[in-house]
Automatic annotation (TrEMBL), chain A:
Keywords: Iron, Metal-binding, Oxidoreductase
One Pfam family matching this protein: Fer2
InterPro entries in the cross-refs: 2Fe-2S-bd (IPR002888), 2Fe-2S-bd_dom_sf (IPR036884), 2Fe-2S_ferredoxin-like_sf (IPR036010), 2Fe-2S_ferredoxin-type (IPR001041), 2Fe2S_fd_BS (IPR006058), Aldehyde_Oxdr_Iron-Sulfur (IPR052914), Beta-grasp_dom_sf (IPR012675)
Gene3D superfamilies: 3.10.20.30, [2Fe-2S]-binding domain
Organism: Limimaricola variabilis
Name assigned to this protein: Xanthine dehydrogenase YagT iron-sulfur-binding subunit
2Fe-2S ferredoxin-type domain segment(s): 1-77
From TrEMBL, chain B:
EC number in record: 1.17.1.4
Source taxonomy: Bacteria, Pseudomonadati, Pseudomonadota, Alphaproteobacteria, Rhodobacterales
Protein name per Swiss-Prot or TrEMBL: Xanthine dehydrogenase YagS FAD-binding subunit
Cited InterPro entries: CO_DH_flav_C (IPR005107), CO_DH_flav_C_dom_sf (IPR036683), Diverse_Substr_Oxidored (IPR051312), FAD-bd_PCMH (IPR016166), FAD-bd_PCMH-like_sf (IPR036318), FAD-bd_PCMH_sub1 (IPR016167), FAD-bd_PCMH_sub2 (IPR016169), Mopterin_DH_FAD-bd (IPR002346)
Classification via PROSITE patterns: FAD_PCMH
A Pfam entry, by short name: FAD_binding_5
Gene Ontology MF term list: xanthine dehydrogenase activity
Species whose genome carries this gene: Limimaricola variabilis
UniProt keyword terms in alphabetical order: FAD, Flavoprotein, Oxidoreductase
Domain FAD-binding PCMH-type residue range list: 1-221
Gene3D superfamilies: 3.30.465.10, CO dehydrogenase flavoprotein, C-terminal domain, Uridine Diphospho-n-acetylenolpyruvylglucosamine Reductase, domain 2
Flavoprotein found in the keyword field: yes
The keyword Flavoprotein appears for this protein: yes
């Protein structure tokens, strides 16, 4: 199925079997292996990428459904020597152990800060109409779609708070 | 995944015609997963994501909202009108899934998502819903998450939605475009079928019938709450949930619109429970009587028996919260 989309700022044309997930298209057909395959069922978040600015599970989406979309992967957020504030914070705060979930964590956290800036409430937000604060409880709830089997959670939270401070 | 024919729908008529031999796809967060497991294998997928008429949230003349089928769970939960006037709906949505999933999942798709029964998902197991006539593995198996109300001897699956439970308490209606082109409005309660002898039939929709929108009636007086009990603090389906809109006037309950998740094959509403509460003064004895009515026909199957006392406690807690300190 012919699909035209923008990936990390570059226009791409792909003609693949409609069964191809966005995740497999990125990894197998475009060489963008930063986005990881964990469970492949939307449960772990390792495949988190941004579609039109919003974080999604790339494993639970078909490439052919993204005609005209703008996709940003971990490679599009920053590169060695020019890391994004969130990538830099994960390095400085040691927000990982094995690193497999890290691209998904970073894409997810990057979108999360934007969501908070836009005032989106979460399950743990006390007042649905107030500006949410970046508490540990809020970060934990909002990042619950990204699992870390090494349990680097405390440092992930520290990295997110550091990145939030730098970008505020 | 089995091969399928992919069709990008250009309009409602085009999509309903194309889906007569296939399935609509919107967010895909449940359907793609089920297709990977080959629990579902539609011959054709009709992608409705580009159909403008299915987008957007509009105010209705009656003071309610018309929520397009493609509105994402995120956009619905965040809508300022929903947050202010229908907070039970925002709360239910925010308690479900993860932010990544809510960004993709749609209003129509959420209503039609399939059960998370382990036996439905495992093709090596018998399941009357997935493969009619093969039996039910869950009945005497691992059924902690499954239903205690509205079940049949053939199926004890639960409907997994949080959103639909809040919509049920709010008296929502569903706007359907039939494959014939006719448009109908149904109370949400009438969309769903109980399993009976045909657990494979979950709704009144026929192939090609499309949910176009959900209509919320005008907001009503009262306090709202969505209380969800689950096995972990985030990203888990409800074991028991209660959506409630409760008002108290001059010391007596004047409204008690209640719906329950995690208990039944559909979002569950029992008007007898509500009738028993309205007109009465709030008390623990009254709340127990309401729970008695709710759970009169409840039947556990081993693992899930805990849901019966749990539902009682959650209902009583919600009613106590919403009636305590309420304006006279």
């Amino acid at each position: 199925m012919q699909t035209s989309l923008t990936i990390n700022g570059t226009a791409r044309e792909l003609d693949l079997d409609p069964r191809t997930s966005l995740l497999d298209a990125l990894r197998h057909h475009l060489g963008l292996t930063g986005t990881k395959k964990g469970c492949d069922h939307g449960q772990c978040g390792a495949c988190t990428a941004l579609v039109n600015g919003r974080r999604v599970n790339a494993c639970l989406s078909l490439l052919c459904m993204h005609d005209g979309d703008e996709v940003t992967t971990i490679e599009g957020l920053g590169q060695p020597g020019a890391l994004s504030p969130m990538q830099q914070a994960f390095v400085e705060k040691d927000g990982f152990q094995c690193g497999y979930c890290t691209p998904g964590q970073i894409c997810s956290a990057t979108a999360m800060l934007e969501e908070i800036a836009q005032g989106w409430p979460s399950h743990v937000t006390e007042d649905l109409e107030a500006q949410p604060e970046l508490t540990i409880e809020e970060i934990s709830e909002r990042m619950s779609g990204n699992l870390c089997r090494c349990s680097a959670y405390p440092n992930i939270v520290d990295a997110i708070r550091k990145a939030a401070g730098e970008t505020a | 995944m089995r091969p399928f024919d992919y069709h990008r729908g250009t309009g409602i008529e085009d999509a309903t015609r194309a889906a007569a031999q296939g399935s609509f796809i919107a967010g895909g967060t449940n359907l793609i997963d089920l297709m990977k497991l080959e629990v579902m294998a539609p011959e054709r997928l009709v992608d409705i994501n580009r159909i403008e008429e299915l987008r957007g949230i509009e105010a209705t003349d009656g003071g309610g909202l018309r929520i397009g089928a493609l509105v994402s769970n995120t956009d619905l939960a965040n809508d300022p009108r929903v947050r202010r006037h229908w907070p039970v709906l925002s709360r239910a949505l925010l308690s479900g899934a993860t932010q990544q999933l809510r960004n993709k999942a749609t209003t129509g798709g959420n209503l039609l998502q399939r059960t998370r029964c382990l036996y439905f998902y495992d093709r090596a197991m018998p399941c009357n819903k997935r493969a009619p006539g093969t039996g039910c593995g869950a009945m005497e198996g691992v059924n902690r998450i499954l239903a205690v109300l509205g079940t049949s001897e053939h199926c004890i699956a639960t409907h997994p939605s949080d959103m639909a439970v809040a919509m049920m308490a709010l008296g929502a209606e569903v706007e359907i475009v039939r494959a014939s082109g006719a448009t109908e409005r149904l109370p949400l309660d009438d969309l769903y079928l109980l399993p009976g002898d045909t657990p494979e039939r979950e709704t009144v929709l026929a192939p090609g019938d499309l949910i176009a929108a959900v209509i919320l009636p005008a907001p009503v007086e009262g306090r709202q709450a969505y209380r969800k009990v689950r096995d972990r603090a985030s990203y888990a389906f409800a074991l028991v949930s209660v959506a409630a809109v409760v008002a108290v006037e001059e010391g007596r309950i004047s409204r008690a619109d209640l719906a329950f998740g995690g208990l039944a094959p559909k979002p569950w509403r029992n008007r007898d429970v509500e009738a028993a509460l309205v007109g009465q003064s709030p008390s623990e004895a009254l709340f127990d009587r309401a729970a008695d009515i709710l759970l009169e026909d409840a039947r556990g199957h081993g693992d899930n028996e805990f849901k019966i006392p749990l539902a009682r406690r959650v209902l009583k807690a919600v009613l106590a919260d919403l009636t305590t300190g309420a304006a006279a």
